[in-house]
Amino acid sequence: MALAFAMKDLSENLISGLILRWEKVIDRGDVLYTHDGEMVKVREIGLRATTVRTKSEGDQVVPNSEFVQKKVSNFTYRDSLYRLSATVGVAYASDLRKVRATLEQVCAGLDWKSEQKQPQVQLIEFGDSSVIFRVLVRNISVKELIRTAELIPDCEATPAGR
Q1: What is the CATH number of the domain that holds 6?
Q2: Which pLDDT value is given to residue 162?
Q3: Based on CB atoms within 10 Å of each CB, which residue in 19, 53, 127, 160 is the most buried?
Q4: Radius of gyration of the CA atoms of the chain, in A
């Protein structure tokens, strides 16, 4: 009975490995956001498992079925751009034009932003006690993406195509 369960997992991971190689939705060097909320970089895709590098520079061996059966976001599937998103709340008494101009000026001064797509500042909500803006900045460096996402509280990194 135990052998049957072991063979089930082994065959599931082998078939998943073949699917990953055939469909090419994940490739070596891709940056992924896994179903458990971790950002990783693919180092190697084997038949049974994939080796990934974590933000803390540790390597993990992940069964291939995890990438086929669960939700995974691939930051580098279509292109190498990443989007950082941060929300900023300001008081209702604030001059909203000045707030927008200030946020745009700050974004323009970022040395790591992509030149392909300009940063965006969006007014997204009138909250209970503040006006909420979202700032979207595209960037091309995985290291800069990870470093910035760690430095800015509540900063979210997503593939730029989304």
Answers
A1: 2.30.30.60
A2: 43
A3: 160
A4: 20
pLDDT in tens, 23-68: 888 888 888 888 887 888 889 998 889 999 887 788 999 998 888 8
pLDDT of residue 124: 94
Query: Contact 13/64 with Cβ under 8 angstroms?
Result: yes
CATH number at residue 92: 3.30.70.100
What average pLDDT does range 75-88 have in this prediction? 75
* Cα 71–Cα 76–Cα 78 angle in degrees, nearest 5: 95
For residue 73 the two structure tokens come to 């976001």
Nearest to 46 by CA among 69, 58, 63, 66: 63
Q: Quick one: pLDDT at residue 122?
A: 95
Q: Is 114 helix (H, G, I), strand (E, B) or coil?
A: coil
Count the alpha carbons within 13 Å of 113 in the hemisphere toward its beta carbon.
20
State which residues form the domain around 30: 2-74
- What does the buried/exposed string (b/e) look like for 82-92 if buried means 16 or more CB atoms within 10 Å of the residue's CB? bbbbbebebee
